[in-house]
Amino acid sequence: MNISKFSNILPQPKSLIGMIHVQALPGTPQNHLSVSEIAAQAVKEAKILADCGMQSIALENMHDVPYLNREVGPEITAALTRICSDVRAVIDLPMGLQILAGANQAALSVAQAAELQFIRAEGFVFGHMADEGLLQSDAGDLLRFRKQIEADDIMIFTDIKKKHSSHAMTSDVSLEDTVEAAEFFLSDGVIITGTHTGKPVNQAELKHVYASAQLPVLVGSGVTPEGLSEIFEAADAFIVGSYFKQEGNWKNDPDPLRVEALIQARQSLLS
Predict the structure, then answer these.
(1) Which residues pair with residue 224 across a beta bridge?
(2) What are the beta bridge partners of residue 192?
C-alpha cells in the first residue's frame, strides 16, 4: 500500500488539494492571453489558495476545450512547464498537474521539469468513451515512461470510471473491480468522482471502496463544506476546484471566502 509515500507527499491528514484551472493555452480555440499573462494569473490564484491555508495545489488546462485525445503539442507542454515553474517558485506546498485529455506522459514530463509531486491521470485502466472519443488504458506505457525519465518519485493518482464519460463497455466491471485493477497495475492512488464537474460522489460507493481499497482514495468532484462531513472518513484527500470559484463556477476567479469556508470545515472535522 502506498500510504507511506502518499503521506510523505501530502503529510497533512485529509488534505484539500485546490485546483487551478489554467487559462486557455497557446494554440487552443479560446486562447487570448500570452504565456506570461496566463502564468501571472495562475500565480495569483495559487497565492490566494495558499494564503487561505490550502494543503496542496494542482493545475489543469480546463480552458483548452475542445480537448485532444491523449496527445498535446509541444506548445502546451512548454507553456505548462513555464506556468507550473512560476507557481512552484512562489508556493511551498505539494503540487500536482493534470493535462486534458489523458495526456498523462506530457503531464509527467512537466511535473518532473517543474518539480511537482503528483499528476492526475485519466484512462489508466480499462477503456472508456469520453467527450474526446475512445480512451484506451495507458498504465503500461505510462509507468514505463515514468521509469525511463527517472520520475518514480512523482505519484500517479488515477481517475476510476471518471466523470464526463460513458462506461457502458465496462458495465459488467464494478467500481471495486476497477479499483483492484488500478492497484494491480501499480496506481499510487485512486480518484472517485461524481458524473460531472462539481457533482458529488456516490457516498455508498465511496465508502465501500475506501473500506476495501489497498491504496489511497481521493475524492475528485463535488466537495463542499456542507457535504464534507458525509465523506470525510471515507477518503484520504479531496480535490476541489468548482466550489472555490465565485458562484461555484469553475470558469470564475477564486473566492477567498469560499476557500476559507471549506478549510474551516476540514479543520472542524479534524478537531
Answers:
(1) none
(2) 219
Question: What is d(CA 31, CA 38) in angstroms, rounded to the nearest whole number?
Answer: 10
Rounded to 5°, angle at Cα 100 from 20 and 74: 100
Q: Which residues of 113-125 are buried (b: 16+ CB within 10 A; e: fewer)?
A: bbebbbbbbbbbb
Q: For residues 19 and 28, what is the distance between their CA atoms, to the nearest angstrom?
A: 20
Q: Alpha-carbon distance 86 to 14, whole Å?
A: 27
Residue matched to cell numbers 475528485? 220
pLDDT digits (tens, 9 = 90+) for 123-150: 999 987 888 888 899 999 999 999 999 9
Average pLDDT, the chain: 94
| Pairing label, strands 95-98, 56-60 | parallel
- Say what angle helices 175-184 and 203-212 make with each other, to 10 degrees: 40
- Domains with residue ranges and CATH for the chain: 3-270 (3.20.20.70)
The whole-angstrom separation of Cα 261 and Cα 264 is 5
Specify the pLDDT at position 167: 63
**pTM score over 0.70:** yes
Q: Which amino acid is at 50?
A: A
Q: Give the three-state DSSP class for 75.
A: helix
Stated as kind and residue range, the H or E segment containing 142 is: helix 139-148
Q: pLDDT tens across 16-28, in order?
A: 999 999 999 999 9
245 backbone dihedrals φ, ψ, rounded to 5°: -85, 160
For residue 196, the model assigns a pLDDT of: 74
Q: Which helix (H) or strand (E) holds 110?
A: helix 104-114
CA 53 to chain centre: 19
Is the CB of residue 177 less than 8 Å from the CB of residue 125? no
What does the angle CA 232 – CA 234 – CA 240 come to, to the nearest 5 degrees? 55
User: Which residue is associated with the grid cell 488534505?
Assistant: 15
